[in-house]
Amino acid sequence: MNKWLKTLLFLAGSALLTRWIPFSSLFRNLDTMFHEFGHALVTLMLSGSVLRIELYADHSGVTYSAIEAGGRAILVSLAGYLLASVFSLLLFYLYTRGRYPWGLIIASGVALIMLVLYVRGGFGMLWLSGFIVLNLMMLLVWPKAGKYYYLFLAFLTLEESVTGTLFLVTTAAITPGRAGDATNLARLTPLPAVVWALLFFVFSLLCAKWALGFFFEGERDRRNSNKLLK
Q1: Arithmetic mean of pLDDT, 160-189
Q2: DSSP string, 142-169
Q3: How many CB atoms lie within 10 A of CB 7?
């Protein structure tokens, strides 16, 4: 089967299946967390300052930062969607290498940094605290369930990174003034919002293809190892 078709089918299947899992909606903020952390991280790398981050129950978020106008502001606006896709790719890479506990540790570390330094809204603080506690329980109390929990998070984050950019493309095409980062980039550059949204979408698909490639590679290696043991 064509790799792109396989990627699209798996993403569609993941989008359907994860919505049947109880309380899955609560975990969709993980992609938002990575998105807003991407803005904050690049802001700090470019000598800007992060004022605060807000996470909302509808899976949206906002990062308030102070940065010089021009090229630095463009990089900060680019960072959210791009780094969220890269984080989802990282989760699958770590799973393939058998290091999924490190994925939970990294995600918990990001959540802790945001909780301690930047997030002050009621929902955001509650969600980050609950996420950290649940991850610790999976690592320390229910390690056997940790692998399946991790895969759930990985697929959910991958699916959200793609569907989020697809929704952005639709928004940018219909109401370009309300397309978030794509709108900001359109104001800072000659390119319209819909072009930036399409670039985000293409990048998220590339990351999804690579991530699923890691996943299939890992599953194939495990099957081969089991055959050798038998």
Answers
A1: 94
A2: -HHHHHHHHHHHHHHHHHHHHHHHHHHH
A3: 21
